[in-house]
Design a protein that fits this description.
heterodimer; A: alpha/beta; two-stranded antiparallel ribbon; 11 strands; globular; B: 997 residues; alpha+beta; Mth169, Chain: A; 60s Ribosomal Protein L30, Chain: A; Phosphoribosyl-aminoimidazole Synthetase, Chain A, domain 2; seven-stranded mixed β-sheet; 31 helices
Chain lengths: 266, 997
């Protein structure tokens, strides 16, 4: 059975619903406190998927994701590199995305070195934004976004503005690493316009993956759109479906991301 | 090796915060700003060498977006003034704490003593004076907790930057208890009660006292007599401890007092009485599990689980420091969930704010000659909103519902309501989860944050003390991450490992209340106070005992499990310390370095305070109806109403509070394409179950000006109705009461209070909706001066918040408020009469006429029996899936409810006012804006017309229109079109008022 490990502790707070999504997708899951993982790093070798859930690790102090990344770099770096080199999957959602960019495992490590080249900075509004956004998938190699074109899910963050310099951006494009971009409801580019692009991200980038497509980070929360009734407009959809004589689904689109991860090992 | 101080400065190449800061400065009236930039500063106290500091800087900055400098300023920017804002000694510094943890993790043992202090350095370009620069600093700093350090560019360059300041607390308190002499004159006793124990006499002869005990003369006589019997003088810690335990805050003396002919008092005689009667009448259907006995109230959720709910207020602290007051409020009420039974998991946060109008910039003062100004309403509003945002978001608890209500009488003291719903298994390790009992020989363990001078006498801090007193004690700031770590470790691990027998939170009164309260369960305790971990050395024992430092729980742990428990906490990065033992000695004993400094009989400590006897005196308001013609342009009136502060969109708050975390969201705070603030929210706390929890609330402080009985009745009716509207059923609803009163020593105010409580009793019993928890805050008054030194008193209007909670059996059947599909029929349920007294409409007209007393005298009343029948019928219709949308009618009446429905659905409607069931009304504006209670607006698909109408058989309801087009078109009672407005225009009016926030 495919096993997913989900990190917890120090203010991470989306581990339970993220584990639920993986379980629903057919994985065995284990939520592990970071201190337990440091004490017993072998746990990582038992898993195929390593997820960094959303939350507020260290209260975003010293920069979102930075303090937890420091702790991981300081205590788990070698094991983490081994995990990546074993061609397993890593998923970072929201604060988890901030952590893995601070670790430098996104856009990717070179020579086993942690080097930060992209960042997630304060939203243009300098305020926490919790709202639903539309995303369009771009990368053909990202394992997690396979089969997805347009998808909606909520963002909830204060520091989600994607920042990178021109060279890095060029590399990301050339190696097909831009996984998700913010778009409007019709799938047209958000063009940096709020609220379609909720934070001012460079080129509307919402999520990126590693060169091999196996490490994936995104600001929006797919685990918050796995049920029909989680959607912002489900009551309207329900009325429309009922009147069209159609069945009302139980599940929602975000599940595809977790299913893709689990299916990858099958 | 020597400890040295070094500054590391970090700045973004492009800082969104600086741009927003510039806007804030401009909004405050400084128009001459041409540039603002911002550095984050870490002042490191360590033994590090230069190469180590390079590593520190690497760990504390992001090379992609930031640059840094060590020990010198960053390359110069364009600026005229440098303004640095840092915390005062002893104030919680979360950023500094995380930075220190990061460095300690990286450097290991050698960095054990490293401390980090965070500050922010603003560079501002603009032509203004040093005094103005100070005022700019105050936009970002609160002088109670932060220091502002200012340099001109010249100074900055001459000094090579800002000064290095490490705000370290230095105390020189006596580390022992002192005796207090109570054998003194009544005059001296009164001084003791009002201003506190004499600490020392200054060189100029003035007495320095330790701050208010809030003990009246009769209480002090009782204490004196007690110690006479004990044949000794009390110690300072004993007096402080009694003052805490007997405070209005802890004992609710007014609600407990005998009132007129009400021998049992308001609480037992009316509030608790209602719950008991409801439970009895519901018999087997009784859904209460734990009411009025614990930190929260609990009701049935499903076969395996209970939900708990609690709503608190944090008014005084929020008046002093809006951010700190609000964040400690929300994380504090989270602990009421963790402290419910054997600990519940927080699943919903809720909030409610009462402020004066944010545009009111006229300052008031606590002292004459413009001394010690209170914070302006806008500052309070933004600080409070931010405090609840940081507290809730950082804790990973969704905040799906809340409200913001405005009245000028909240200017002296805002009201800040915060609530938390929790979820807990019925059985914890085979025992009832909602029950707990500390056993003799259990170890007393304090968990979480350390103890400092925070919040000592916080609730009763006088204005004099605030202007001159020590800032470390006045205000507390929350540290939600410390609490989150503790919460996870207790609720998700220690509880289910059966590691403790009892748990409670440290709130008001700190250890003095939590330990003494738990000691009741077994019959006594003995505490070794020197074992309590402190933030800094030099505190007196009484300070450690009553400190309200945040993020702490107290647990009772069987001796043999203590090590396992403390080890688990340590592994989770949570500090836990054994500080004494519970016993059955019937004494509350505190020792300090083996010396007994407190030894009080448990019975006296808890029940020594005799009940008060109070009397009321009726008061009747003199309010008249406004006199004005029906406006010729009703469309314009509707737009004006939509823009009113109490009706307009509060989207900017809802969108910054995470309401999706935990994956539980069903009905959200903003509904429909048009994102309209909903009155109720629904969450689904268990991912694998369709069961939901609905939460709502209501308050009508305006109605209290006419009659507090109907104010309370309307609040109960609306709080219930809002839940019915989303799909809850009457039998599943429970209530919480929060009375925020004023001048409660005046018999007239007590009369108003009694009437409100009577309505609570009447309507809770009629609706069979039990009260499960409540709280009161009785003195929300401000006494001070205007800018001409004229004395003034501002009292909040008597305010009763009713919060409601319901378990919803299938959340897939829930209904949102947005009008949905072209052709749907619009029904109004309920009856409309000319009840416009204190309505938003009359308040608007009275303001236009500049006549404060012309807000009307006809208060909306509640016909409970008819309402009940409507609600039950509508519940059935919703259950059958016959309803497409429901909006409860509240402030602003039918007109506003219709408009909100259209805005939310971004779809028009055609409405005929002739079809509205009404009596005694011959004006269109009265029909549109009457606030008659118990009404709901429903849309129904045309194919469900007969189904809906037969489900509502016997109920007063009528079809008033149809969902159609892109305009709201309203035909008046004379058959002429009175309103025709594009929905986009309605939306603009609804959203523009607070859009700039």
């Amino acid at each position: 059975m495919v096993k997913a490990i989900l990190l917890a502790g120090y203010g991470i707070n989306c581990e339970e619903e993220t584990a639920f999504a993986f379980k629903k997708a057919g994985a065995e899951t284990e939520i592990i406190h970071i201190n337990d993982l440091i004490a017993n790093p072998k746990k990582l070798s038992e898993a195929q998927i390593f997820a960094f859930p959303g939350g507020f690790s260290y209260g975003d102090n010293t920069g979102s994701g930075n303090a937890l990344a420091n702790k991981i770099r300081n205590n788990l770096w070698t094991k983490l590199v081994e995990f990546i080199e074993a061609e397993k999957l890593i998923l970072g959602i929201c604060n988890g995305f901030q952590v893995i960019t601070n670790l430098g495992i996104l856009p990717g490590i070179e020579n086993r070195q942690a080097k930060r080249t992209v960042a997630l900075s304060h939203n243009n509004s300098a305020r926490y934004e919790c709202r639903w956004v539309s995303l369009k998938s771009f990368s053909k190699k990202c394992v997690f976004t396979k089969g997805i074109d347009l998808i909606r899910m909520p963002v909830a963050h204060g520091e989600g503005k994607f920042v990178a310099d021109e060279n890095i951006l060029k590399q990301l494009k050339e190696s097909d690493q831009i996984a998700f971009k913010y778009v409007d409801e019709n799938g047209e580019p958000a063009n940096s316009v709020f609220p379609q692009n909720p934070n001012g991200s460079l080129e509307d980038i919402a999520g990126i993956c590693s060169k091999d497509g196996r490490v994936f980070g995104l600001m929006p929360h797919p685990e918050r759109n796995i049920f029909f009734t989680q959607q912002a407009d489900w009551t309207l959809q329900k009325e429309k479906l009922k009147r069209a004589g159609k069945e009302i689904p139980e599940e929602s689109a975000g599940m595809q991301i977790f299913r893709n991860a689990v299916e990858y090992f099958k | 090796m020597e400890v040295n101080l070094c500054r590391i400065e970090v700045s973004f190449q492009n800082d969104a915060r600086a741009k927003i800061a510039k806007k804030s400065i401009e909004r405050a009236g400084f128009g001459k700003i041409s540039a603002v930039s911002l550095n984050d500063v870490y002042t490191i106290s360590s033994q590090f060498q230069e190469k180590d500091l390079e590593k520190c800087a690497f760990l504390l900055h992001n090379p992609v977006t930031q640059q840094f400098s060590i020990g010198k300023p960053l390359p110069s920017k364009e600026f005229d003034w440098a303004i640095e804002i840092g915390f005062l000694p002893g104030v919680t510094d979360n950023v500094g704490k995380t930075a220190a943890e990061t460095l300690q993790d990286f450097f290991g043992e050698e960095a054990k003593e490293t401390a980090v202090f965070s500050s922010q350095l603003f560079f501002i370009k603009g032509d203004f004076s040093k005094e103005e620069a100070g005022k700019i600093g105050e936009i970002f700093a609160n002088p109670l907790i932060q220091g502002i350090y200012i340099k001109t560019r010249e100074q900055f360059e001459a000094d090579s930057g800002m000064d290095v300041i490490a705000p370290i607390v230095k105390l020189h308190e006596e580390p022992k208890a002192r005796e207090v002499n109570l054998e003194i004159s009544d005059e001296e006793l009164l001084k003791l009660g009002k201003h506190g124990i004499l600490d020392h006499v200054e060189s100029d002869g003035t007495e320095a006292r330790r701050g208010p005990l809030a003990l009246d003369l009769s209480s002090l006589h009782i204490i004196r007599d007690y110690f006479k019997k004990e044949s000794r003088k009390p110690t300072d810690i004993e007096i402080e401890s009694l003052a805490q335990t007997w405070s209005e805050h802890c004992k609710h003396t007014i609600f407990a007092a005998e009132l007129d002919d009400l021998e049992k008092g308001l609480y037992k005689g009316l509030i608790k009485d209602a719950t008991e009667k409801v439970r009895e009448s519901k018999g087997k259907e009784d859904n209460c599990v734990s009411v009025f006995v614990d930190n929260s109230g609990g009701i049935d959720f499903d076969k395996e689980n209970i939900v708990s709910d609690k709503v608190e207020t944090h008014n005084s602290p929020s008046a002093l420091d809006p951010f700190g007051g609000a964040i400690t409020g929300i994380v504090g009420v989270n602990r009421d969930t963790m402290g419910f039974g054997m600990a519940a998991k927080p699943i919903i946060n809720r909030y409610g704010f009462c402020f004066a109008e944010p545009k009111d910039a006229e300052l008031l003062y606590r002292a004459k000659e413009k001394g010690n100004s209170i914070l302006p309403p806008e500052r309070i509003m933004l600080g409070v909103i931010d405090g609840v945002q940081v507290g809730g978001n950082c804790s990973g608890i969704p905040t799906p519902t809340g409200f913001m209500y405005f009245d000028e009488r909240y200017k002296g003291k805002p009201l800040v309501f915060v609530g938390t719903v929790g979820l807990m298994p019925r059985l914890v390790n085979g025992k009832k989860g909602h029950e707990k009992k500390a056993e003799p020989d259990d170890v007393i363990v304090m968990v979480g944050g350390r103890v400092g001078l925070d919040g000592i006498h916080g609730a009763t801090f006088s204005s004099e003390a605030l202007s001159s007193g020590s800032p470390a004690t006045a205000v507390q700031i929350g540290d939600p991450i410390t609490q989150k770590k503790m919460s996870d470790a207790i609720v998700k691990e220690a509880r289910d490992l059966n590691l403790y027998t009892s748990i409670t939170d440290n709130g008001a009164g700190g250890l003095s209340c939590s330990v003494a309260e738990m000691a009741k369960e077994c019959g006594g305790c003995s505490v070794d106070l020197e074992k309590v971990p402190v933030k800094y050395q030099g505190m007196s024992p009484w300070q450690i005992w009553v400190s309200e430092s945040q993020e702490r729980m107290t647990l009772a742990i069987p001796k043999e499990k203590t090590k396992q428990f403390i080890d688990l906490m340590t592994q989770r990065g949570v500090e836990a310390t054994a500080i004494g033992e519970f016993n059955d000695s019937q004494r509350c004993v505190v020792k300090f370095n083996n010396k007994k400094i407190m030894d009080i009989d448990m019975h006296f400590l808890h029940d020594g305070l005799p009940r008060k006897k109070l009397a009321t005196k009726p008061m009747y308001p003199f309010l008249k109806n406004p006199s004005f013609e029906e406006p010729s342009n009703l469309g314009r009136t509707l737009l004006e109403m939509l823009s009113r502060l109490n009706i307009c969109s509060k989207e900017f708050i809802s969108a910054q509070y995470d309401h999706e975390v935990q994956g539980s969201s069903v009905l959200k705070p903003l509904q429909g394409k048009g994102r309209v603030n909903a009155d109720a929210a629904v969450v689904r706390p268990l991912l694998e179950s369709q069961k939901g929890v609905g939460v709502s609330h209501a308050l009508y402080p305006g109605y209290g000006d006419i009659d507090t009985y109907w104010m309370a009745a309307a609040a109960i009716d609306s709080a219930v109705k809002n839940l019915i509207a989303v799909g809850a059923k009457m039998e599943d609803i429970a209530l919480l009461d929060n009375f925020c009163w004023c001048s409660s020593n005046e018999p007239e105010r007590l009369w108003q209070l009694k009437k409100a409580a009577q309505a609570c009793n009447d309507f809770a019993i009629l609706y069979k909706t039990p009260f499960i928890s409540g709280k009161d805050s009785m003195f929300n008054d401000f006494k001070g001066f205007d800018s001409d030194s004229n004395a003034l008193k501002i009292s909040v209007p008597p305010t009763l918040l009713i919060s409601s909670i319901a378990v919803i059996s299938d959340s897939r059947k829930c209904v949102s408020m947005d009008a949905k599909i072209e052709g749907d029929l619009v029904y109004a349920v309920g009856f409309t009469t000319g009840e416009l007294g204190a309505s938003e409409y009359y308040r608007m007209q009275a303001k236009k006429a500049n006549d404060k007393n012309a807000t009307g005298g006809t208060v909306p009343t509640v016909d409970g029996k008819k309402a009940l029948a409507s609600y039950n019928a509508l519940s059935k219709a919703i259950e059958k899936g016959l309803v497409a949308s429901v909006q409860a009618v509240s402030l602003g009446g039918l007109g506003i409810a219709i408009a909100k429905k259209c805005i939310a659905g971004r779809i028009g409607a055609k409405i005929d006012l002739k079809k509205v069931l009404s009596v005694g009304i011959n004006r269109n504006d009265s029909i549109l804006f009457s606030e008659s209670q118990s009404r709901l607006l429903v849309t129904v698909a045309s194919e469900n017309k007969s189904g809906f109408e037969s489900a509502m058989n016997g109920i007063r309801f009528s079809k008033i229109g149809i969902v159609s087009g892109t305009k709201l078109e309203i035909t008046g009672i004379a058959g002429k079109q009175k309103i025709s407005l594009p929905v986009s225009e309605l939306e603009e009016a609804y959203k523009k008022t607070l859009r700039d926030y």
